[in-house]
Specification:
Radius of gyration: 20 Å
Strand content: 35-45%
Largest sheet: 4 strands, antiparallel
Order of helices and strands: HEEEEEEEEEEEEEEEEEEEE
Distance between the termini: 27 Å
Number of strands: 20
Strand order of the largest sheet: 1-2-3-4
Number of helices: 1
CATH class of one domain: Mainly Beta
Shape: globular
């Protein structure tokens, strides 16, 4: 007998003239009691789980301008804070009502790519800088980031001969040569409730980290490097019994 997933519908009670589109909601955060979202105009919305709008703010305009663009947000219900990735090396931290609190700045040459909550004191992120041509690379691409002072420590997950989801090519036009980069939407790291799933494309095994414990989730068959062209597979959603992945 086929199983059906339970669906929760939450009508969001927006106040004011700005709206949220479906894609905006896919890039937000849902915690136990709150919903965090933002739109392309740089406006951040905070709702309770019944859909009532609690807060709204925008620091992309006016005298309080503190960011030009929002790449991602993480709503921290436990600490009553919102972490906004505004640049590849910078995260701005606000209260739920939008009061600026501090900035977290990455130490070069690390770049914030995907950023998620890990525990009460730390975020976890994947390094967006491609190091696949660096012969001194140590195989670590995921890190923990202190929510207070941006202290960085390695997330002990090693990747040998990394494969990224960003590709670069040269374009020749007469005597000029330019470089173009392409990024596909399959990501090697996802947050699933309290779990962090790492499905780096170079690894045959997909791992799950829950409370600091590393578990083998599943194994790709055939092996990643046994096929050509390479097939990039990333986990999208995990439930108690099912995994949805994209190819």
């Amino acid at each position: 007998m086929a199983e059906e997933a339970e669906i929760e519908y939450i009508p969001l009670q927006l106040q004011g003239t700005e709206w949220l589109k479906t894609f905006d909601l896919l890039r937000g955060t849902i915690s136990e009691n709150m919903i965090f979202a933002y739109n392309k105009k740089g406006t951040v919305f905070v709702f309770d789980r019944a859909g009532k709008q609690l807060h709204r703010f925008n620091h992309a305009r006016g005298e309080k301008k503190q960011y030009d663009y929002i790449f991602s947000i993480y709503g921290d219900e436990e600490n009553q804070e919102i972490f906004i990735k505004t640049l590849c090396y910078k995260i701005e931290v606000y209260s739920l009502a939008g009061e600026y609190k501090r900035s977290l700045i990455a130490s070069y040459p690390i770049s914030f790519n995907q950023v998620f909550g890990y525990n009460k004191d730390s975020l976890v992120f994947s390094d967006g800088i491609s190091k696949i041509k660096d012969r001194f690379d140590n195989g670590i691409y995921s890190y923990k980031l202190s929510k207070k002072d941006a202290g960085i420590s390695p997330f002990l997950f090693y990747v040998k001969h990394r494969i990224t989801n960003t590709f670069t090519c040269e374009v020749r036009e007469e005597k000029q040569i330019s470089s173009l980069s392409y990024t596909i939407t399959i990501e090697p790291m996802i947050k699933n409730g309290n779990e962090v799933i790492l499905s780096d494309f170079a690894c045959d095994t997909i791992f799950l980290f829950d409370g600091g414990t590393k578990k083998a989730l599943l194994r790709r068959t055939p092996a990643v490097r046994s096929t050509f062209p390479l097939k990039l597979i990333g986990v999208s959603i995990k439930t108690d019994r099912f995994i949805l992945w994209i190819l």
